[in-house]
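Check this:
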Amino acid sequence: MQKALNFAEQQGASLVCYLQDDTQMVRPLAAEDEQYLAGLFAENEGIGFIHPCFLRGRNRARDERHMYYDEHVGVYYRQGARRSAGTHFSALLIMQPTRLLARGWSFLESEPRNDEQAARLFGPMPYLHVPFAMWLPEVPAYRGKRKTLALKIAERQRNSGYFPFRILDAAETKVLAARSHVRPPFAEDVLECIDGDPPGPWAYHPMQGSRWLQKLCSVENALRRWLRF
């Protein structure tokens, strides 16, 4: 991320968006979007990062309590939730390279540490009223060289796979933009997968919501470390 930041600054990029391999853009971006984002930064010196994604439906109860809409800025902020990241920083972000480097920003090795740094240098991170990206639901997990038995079971149970989103057209984007700000942008309320939606609320890791499989996975990983295989 730091190399990308340095490269973008060298190239004179005014705006940069970081996404990941398990995310997708869900609507086209127009010149008006770029102008709007540039205006958010220009009019709000405290902004370091802007979040480009929808909210996750499985966190609906929590986010409906802790997300509030700022009518003066036209964005949502997260407040009051005890989270290691997501209040001031997220690995999925929109930024201005010159602003970050001018404040002495340097990416650290984890989201929690970056969130702490962002809290020192900037104000809270805005969430867009009309987001344009989202994590793909029910993706397989490939962290590490081996999958544990628990992870394999979880992937079969959840039917993990590739569920790309249908791209929102101009009319659907207009409806999204025109909705009441009382309704935060939850993915399941707006997005549809091309080949049919997985059961909701969507999960973003196969073992999400299954404590016994998470414990089984931890035991297997501990045994592997102990037996060194």
